[in-house]
Amino acid sequence: MTSVSEQALIEAALGGQVVSFPTDTVPALAVLPSRAESIFAVKQRSLDKPLILMGATEVDLWPFVQRTESELQIWQGVANRHWPGALTLVLPASAAVPSVMNPVDPSTIGIRVPNQAIARRILAQTGPLATTSANLSGEPPLQTMAEISSRFPQVVTLEWAPSEPNATASGVPSTVAKWTGQSWEILRQGVVELDSNSVDRGR
User: How many CA atoms lie within 13 Å of 1's alpha carbon, on the beta-carbon side?
Assistant: First the structure.
């Protein structure tokens, strides 16, 4: 499929199609959370590898997590420090998260706000999307829209100009931190350099 405009990509996403657009880390494959099984199929991805819910703001993402007020204060503190950015928080999932997002353990959900203007513009109009890197499972993430369009002809890719503000990407996946109920466990060290102590209690 040829690349399409931003508005056409948004309409495709709202129609339930798998789309691809740049982020601040690596380009994403994205789809409505209720259609998450489409990404697993496209990527030939194991169901034990959950998807990330990406949103334009943390306010858009909080309804998808189950929390106490004290926990939300801690999480908001971390969000204020690191979002938009390359940090994924794995938190208790609320009933708003379709189980297909994380079939093996639907009790948790990874959430992130990308530091990428194009991505946030799209997400502001589609609402939070189920996302993952654009590659077949086990292969390195693809880095350009042209590569993605060639590898995944069934995916709607974004026609975009590298001159767009904030269009550059690190090429490195996000750091992933899981809330244990008391503190954070670092599941994957990525762009954001931190350890469990540096994000404990939102510091």
Answer: 20
